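Q: What does the predicted 3D structure of Penicillin-binding protein activator LpoB look like?
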Amino acid sequence: MKLKAFAGVVIGTALLGGCATTGNVSYGDAQSVETLTKDFGSTDLQMIANKMVDDMLSFPPIVQMTQNRRPVMFVDRIKNKTQEHIDTESITDTIQSKLINSGKFRFVDMTAANAMAEQIAYQKQSGMVNQATSVRAGGQIGAEYMLNGNLSSIVKNAGGKSDVYYKFTLKLQNLQTGIVEWTNEKEIRKSSKRPAFGL
């Protein structure tokens, strides 16, 4: 009797699990326009990254700066000044990837600075690493430029309509002189209307 009850529980669990995992799942084009909500989405991220990188690389002083060498920069995390939870690190990564792949800049990754320091200390102090092959401390190249920015928004709601205005600002700053070498803004406006019926 106990065996039958146990078998019933196992079968029931399997059926429930099967129901939980079934559904219509399909792959879509990651580059297609996403308009499910007025919130900041993947299309906005792609638009911002492409516009900003293209504008920066075509700016005459930047063209001249990168003509014969690849300056070293680091990207500071984009500050989220909106009321939404937005993964600004993803924006930062996309912009950095596009700039690296342009072949015009080299980057130092400040998000990995602590991990690199720990690894160098391990190689020097643990006694586990052949010192002939260990990394020499103090040999890293310093960044010449810092790329940073802000993402802000203004939200208005009235008469069942909602409007959100996003402004993304990015600037390239010379660390030695403090001079802003390049800056630009990208604006996005999105609106939505609540359905007449439903929640």
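A (community wiki): The structure tokens above were generated from the sequence. The helical segments are 2-21, 42-58, 60-65, 88-101, 113-125. The beta strands are 72-75, 79-80, 106-107, 145-158, 161-174, 180-193.
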